[in-house]
Amino acid sequence: MALYSSIVLYIALFFGLYYQIFLLVTFFEKEEEKKAPKNTYEPSVTIIVPCFNEAKTVAKTVQSLLKLNYPKEKLFITIVDDGSSDTTYEEARKMSHLGNITVLQQKNSGKYVALNKGIELSQSEIVGCLDADSTVHPDTLRKMLPYFSRDRVVAVTPAMKVHNPETILQKIQNAEYNIGIFLKKIMGKLDAIHVTPGPFSLFKKTIFDEIGYFRHAHNTEDMEIAFRIQHHHYKIANCPQGFVYTITPPTLKKLYKQRVRWTYGFLKNAMDYRHMFFNKKYGNIGTLTLPFAIISVVTAFLVIGNSIYNFSSSVVENIEEYMVAGVTFGWPSFDIFFLNTSSVTLLTFTMLCSSLSIILLAWKMVEGKARITKDIFYFILLYGFIAPLWLAKASWNAVTSKAVSWR
Amino acid sequence: MEINKKKYILVFLITAGIFAVAFIVSNYINNKRYEVIKTTADKISIDILSLETQFELFQESSCASLTNPVLSDEINALADRLSYAENQRGINDDDVITLKKYYSLLEIKDYLVMKKVDKRCDVNPISILYFYTNDEGCDDCAKQGYVLTKLRNDHPLLRIYSFDYDLDLNAIKTLTAINKIPKDQLPALVIDGKTYTKFQSIEDIRKIVPELSATSTASTTKIQK
Fold first, then answer.
1. Which residues does chain B have within 8 Å of residue A287's beta carbon, measured at their own beta carbons?
2. This prediction's pTM
3. Which domains, and CATH codes, for chain A?
């Protein structure tokens, strides 16, 4: 048994390290053909803002769109109220005179239906969406559009940042989102992006006519559409300079709910598109992104299981010792002889160093300076304890096919 | 949608290289550890030989001139390092088994020499022989180890000699035969020539050795099992 668990642990470490090295090699690789796109492309753009009970934030979201540095006659905003029970619709209507704003209302049918309604009505060359809990930087649209000039690019994703992180949980998410910006840039280089997030992803309108509109997709329509685009051999680019600010869940309960939905959605969509796994036909998304995302979930369980087992064994041992020998006082002595230098420890240490390099590179890229901040500290210290909560629940739901709700 | 096969292979080679380096470095440090344990054991062996020689010379000298260079701390430190090596390399590792045999012989030597010293000089050391097994069936062996560790921490002059019952060493077999210790009665203690089988609590041992009732504190080193 011990032999099997050692082998499994080594395999997990190998894949983990392989993935991190792959990311670092790709990051430092020179981009040959993908030079920075030119800034002259000015198509008509429709941004759809689907809302459900977002009376408090919808005005701010729309205001940020109105401030976009883009010709007003080419920018259209469609607000779709998905049957809110609060005053979202009234709030949206108040802004309808401010620009090319259309306000629609539908019976509560889900975000994907709201998005499809907006796409259907749009006459623009480019359509995008912006969740009503997010705001966009004035230059983001201009920075993102030129990426459409690249060969077979039909969607562009932005760099998502946390809006005003206040609680420890939001600071942890801030670190996570900054790392996400770095990873998305690398995945963009590899044409291996598997999600076009709700906050300000842009699409060529024609792609919906060709591959179909948004689907329910286990409540993760933004993931499924990315899988479908990749399935049709089109490309999704990433614009690491195009910032979008999103309000993140401030409490563990809300974060848990959001992440269970994301993870469950990923697992179910991955199952739906399982033919892409290890399939060279689909490029790096088939051989790298999807397999390693699944491996990382499995690895997380192994590492967590192993840690829980070791921790409980140690607790049981200590209780047993206390029961028979009472409390032993005395300072622990340090002897270099007892420094753990097993190959597993050395490899784990190497992986931690590699993770830290990725975090610092991400910080340098996003914040301009590579340094350990409070957010990174909280992230390193606590993320490993909270992520298993939703990983376990989402995996359980995926295995038992128990659907998760949006809210 | 092309994949860069060369990059996949290059990254594989880098990862495999890191694994190879980790294994080599870990193995190198483990070998160094073995050397450290061996050197410590050699030093203790010389110390015991020195004590024995002193003891022979003692015939013509006084008890006051007889010093005891084999400090229990030194043997305890060796026991801790050996226990660590056993955890790292496994109980079936040949080097670990050889070192354990060496350590057990040193313990027996120290025990016998101290008995001789006691007879002549009446130093009256408190010694406990402790027999354990690493077999999973002996849950109480771990508990007995905690009790003895606690007692030794409270009484630095207490000499505890621990022996792995399953170690293929004739000297241990002789000891267990002399003290009539069957394997199914482990853990077992021998105190003042008398054998006590099965788990003995701190209170039980204090009743057997009343001198251990008074407490004092010292360093914390663990006793095997």
1. 3, 8
2. 0.79
3. 45-165+193-247 (3.90.550.10)
